[in-house]
Amino acid sequence: MNILSPSILAADFTRLGEQISEVDRAGAEYLHFDVMDGLFVPSISFGMPVLKSVRKATKRILDVHLMIENPERYVDEFADCGADLITVHAESCRHLDRVISQIHQKGKKAGVALNPATSLSALDYVLDKVDMVLIMTVNPGFGGQKFIESSYGKIRDLKSRMEAAGLHTDIEVDGGINADTLPGVLEAGANVIVAGSAVFKGNIAENVRNLKNIMEQK
Ligand SMILES: O=C(CO)[C@@H](O)[C@H](O)COP(=O)(O)O
Ligand SMILES: [Fe+2]
Predict the structure, then answer these.
(1) For residues 65 and 27, what is the distance between their CA atoms, to the nearest angstrom?
(2) In the structure, which protein residues have their CB atom closer than 6 angstroms to any atom of ligand 1?
(3) For the chain, where are the E strands, in sequence order?
(4) What is the pLDDT of residues 119-164, one digit of tens each?
(5) What is the pTM of this model?
(6) Ligand 1 center to residue 166 CA distance, Å?
(7) What domains are there in the chain, each with its CATH number?
(8) ipTM over 0.95
């Protein structure tokens, strides 16, 4: 099933509750929550107190993307604040297998994210343990960046690898997704689509409808 996960990083924070209701009403299935620590990525975004408030504002799946060093320090707290799905970066975990188990022990779904320059081989011994793989289609740290073209091939390779192993794990893409890049990532095998600017800039309901239309045609 294809799923849309609007990234609130691109929302108007003075009207966050309203804008969350708007994407909910327009039919987005997930809500993407980008946590940045100023170390793993250059920017600092938001953390637990904001997640707690967002949890009260929506019943949708909260898809928490941790762009932080040593995320095991905070996984339990993000789980307690209302995350449903917690994604950690392979590059930021010294003990990736252990962090995946930690997320599962909290009763949450676990995702592993790969930066554009990270090989799929980082997933070799954990692929069958994760609920989702996040292929970053920009270098993490900021919204509104340009999609990296080599991502299409990477998604396709991951999809073949999963098929060969008999796995139906979700493939999420994040960064520079819009009406132009969406058809290609769907074709390549992605099914969980993060979109920040393409949802929150302009008319939110119309943007969600357009992206969902494309997703339904594929
Ligand atoms: O994780 C990140 C950026 O690091 C994203 O989730 C962005 O928030 C996506 O924004 P757009 O590229 O869709 O504007
Ligand atoms: Fe993200």
Answers:
(1) 21
(2) 7, 9-10, 32, 34, 65, 138, 140-145, 174-177, 194-198
(3) 3-6, 30-36, 61-67, 85-89, 109-114, 132-136, 170-174, 192-195
(4) 999 999 999 999 999 999 999 999 999 999 999 999 999 999 999 9
(5) 0.98
(6) 30
(7) 3-217 (3.20.20.70)
(8) yes
